[in-house]
Amino acid sequence: MVVSSSFHRYLSVWQWNTTTPPSPGITRMCCTSDRLSIPSIAGQQTAAPTRVTITCPTATFTRETTCTGSTRDSTSVDGARNVYTPKPPAGDLHIAPDEYEQQSRAKRSPLNPRKPTGLNVETLVVADRKMVEKHGKENITTYVLTVMNMVSSLFKDGTIGKDINIVVVSLLLLEQDPVGLSISHHADLSLNSFCQWQSGLIGKNGKRHDHAVLLTGLDICSWKNEPCDTLGFAPISGMCSKYRSCTINEDTGLGLAFTIAHESGHNFGMIHDGEGNVCKKAEGNIMSPTLAGNNGVFSWSACSRQYLNRFLRRLLE
């Protein structure tokens, strides 16, 4: 909930608590402290979410220095990748606007055995006013956490080659548009606004999130302010950057989980299968440009795995 006063804007945040202690050997991405994740397996027992409040000044936000491990992939890609330049910092960015059809699929690829170490991506999730109105205040929290549970499972799929934990540290439900955040059908302008806005949010104990996910109830479109078939927009290799670790995702039902995983994959440095690499577009992998393969398996391609490994080497070296 958003409550206005003459001096501050109050954002209602849900932090998901679990009684399960953190797994040993977990490496935090960026400059983060211990947080707890939503369950990645259906049916796992969790405690009720605890409501807390953070306060953000309406004019300015408290700033924090960029994580030292942040990196930027400046490799040129084909014309399907557009250039997006948030400020600060200055410089060109590669953006992936995703326009793909959805098909129902019934199977998942088997998970690898749990590895002893992993990477936590502490994630801020923001549902905009249109999305809250669409699902209703009574249902929106359950819906979003269900979707993020699915995202967590996709990133734990064995084909990704790494133990990546998507950790939801806070959920913001916007009942009105906050000062400094402008969301419209125009996907790239909305993403620009969101990336700037989220960069100023500081969570509990003065810690920042690693990654920010915007969920919108609007029908977004790349490069124009009208509805079209774009479902998501993300900077390439932006993960863990203060200003670029962010995505916008159009709500399409539970298929939203695949959009989020796909866009977060772009943030991890992944490029579409079949675009400048040897992987095939139509095999139905998560980074396929169509997400409409015929094998019905939710998995990551060998190309996605290679892009991820390259990105993590640069990030963690």
TrEMBL record:
The keyword Lyase does not apply. It holds the Pfam family Reprolysin. Residues 119-317 form the Peptidase M12B domain. Its main location: secreted. InterPro entries: ADAMTS_ADAMTS-like (IPR050439), MetalloPept_cat_dom_sf (IPR024079), Peptidase_M12B (IPR001590). Residues 66-95 are annotated as: Disordered. GO terms for molecular function: metal ion binding; metalloendopeptidase activity. It is found in: Secreted, Extracellular space, Extracellular matrix. Zn(2+) binds at H262, H266, H272. GO terms for cellular component: extracellular matrix. Keywords: Disulfide bond, Extracellular matrix, Glycoprotein, Hydrolase, Integrin, Metal-binding, Metalloprotease, Protease, Secreted, Zinc. This is A disintegrin and metalloproteinase with thrombospondin motifs 18. Residues 66-77 have a biased composition (Polar residues). It comes from the Eukaryota. GO terms for biological process: extracellular matrix organization; integrin-mediated signaling pathway; proteolysis. It comes from Acipenser ruthenus. The active site is at E263.
